[in-house]
Amino acid sequence: MAKHEHARVAVIGSGFGGLGAAVRLRREGITDFVVLERADSVGGTWRDNSYPGCACDVPSHLYSFSFAPNPDWPRTFSGQRHIRAYLEHVTDTFGIRPHLRLNHEVLRMEWDADALRWEIETNSGSFSAEVVVSATGPLSDPKIPDIPGLSDFPGKVFHSARWDHDYDLTGKRVAMIGTGASAIQIVPAIQPQVRRLTLFQRTPPWVMPRMDRNITGAERRLHRALPFTATLRRGLLWGIRELQVGAFTKHPGELGLVEKLARANIARAVKDPALRAKLTPSYRIGCKRILLSNTYYPAVAQPNVDVVASGLREVRGSTLVGADGSETEVDAIVFGTGFHVTDMPIAPRVIGADGRSLADVWKDGMESLRGATAAGFPNWMTIIGPNTGLGNSSMILMIESQLNYMADYLRQLNVLGGRTALAARPSAVNAWNRKVQARMERTVWKSGGCESWYLDANGRNTTLWPGTTGEFRRETRQVDLSEYEVIRAPRTAPAAASRPSRTKKEAAK
């Protein structure tokens, strides 16, 4: 028989969200849980994204858990290698390894209304859990556009999040597709080694200088000896970003000064007027994420770099054809085209109380209650759910707020007693999302004149939070039971722990 394991809580994913959930469970005294991870190690997006130049665009002392400060960050904006090492350190420090089930990709999870638990099928065995915490993250599954002729390209093709380190780009003609956060780090890293680099750009990003430097040994010694100094540093970084939120969410006109600084940044690095025109956006700064780099513009201005400012239309053998009709011969194509964000790949695999998948329920747009729970999916919650993203600060702040909500959710279940589930009321979900979307109308993300990955197919911003991180923390401090239906198990139902797991054939009926 296939292996079956029951746990009180199943956490899906082991990035910042999943590891944060695991740590919080242990701190709440809950040790009956598993962390299901499809890969062979922890780290989430910081494991998967190992491309040249990969680093975070949020200062390290803010992009780390408040309960696990790291006094030894080497740079103000640390690279992928150090962030991944930090997550491994968190895993060991808080005793998470015994809970990990690596190489366990969730294929399907279905709510069992009789037993009040989730039945979970993975590629390495089955599980059941009273509560599921989905922390698969929005930046986990790469998106490659459907380009005519791409399948017949004779050279190398890979996505930035699946970098092929065995393929040597030295002396190659390389096409970089996209100009997002990954691309502006990759371009300066590979430009010196390639023979020719062609950048296919649909929409130019606004790029500001990156105030990055080495953190001195004296600073690190100070933070180790006096931990409150690191806390103070984190608080200052947080406060500055909180003060900026109003310009993004209420008064986009205030971003005009920032836009002037960004234009000056382009002018300093790019002397060719034609190239400068290609690289200058026509939308309000902040509508798409503001990117940080000191090396992107100088790299693009090098003689071995071409910018096709119309995007990629088709591939004909080894020739890439731009939307403007230009043709470029290349040996390799690197896609920096983002991820499935508004169409979460986990959603089709989650089957709720009425037999519908989360993807079906969300077919007209993602909606959840306080970014955590969805109507029709009892005892299921997500970390970094709909409308919890940020445009200018650290996602770790939002994750920790959601962990507070998760902890109180589990406390409420304890107080209610017995085999109990909480199901978000559709009226509460609708009310929350009406409020969020009403606030969204004033934001630069809706009024700034751009198309971005923040928006779904219907043009709704189901990704970002239209307020401060402090507001979100207050909104998720505790569970309001009036927003939930309390479901109790039938008296005649078998005990969860003794109920046998259904086979895949039974689950499919």
UniProtKB/TrEMBL annotation:
Region feature Disordered, mapped onto this chain: 490-509
Keywords: FAD, Flavoprotein, Monooxygenase, NADP, Oxidoreductase
Cofactor(s) named in the record: FAD
Signal peptide stretch: none
Molecular function GO labels: flavin adenine dinucleotide binding; N,N-dimethylaniline monooxygenase activity; NADP binding
Low complexity bias spans: 490-500
Spans through the membrane: none
Protein name as annotated: Baeyer-Villiger monooxygenase
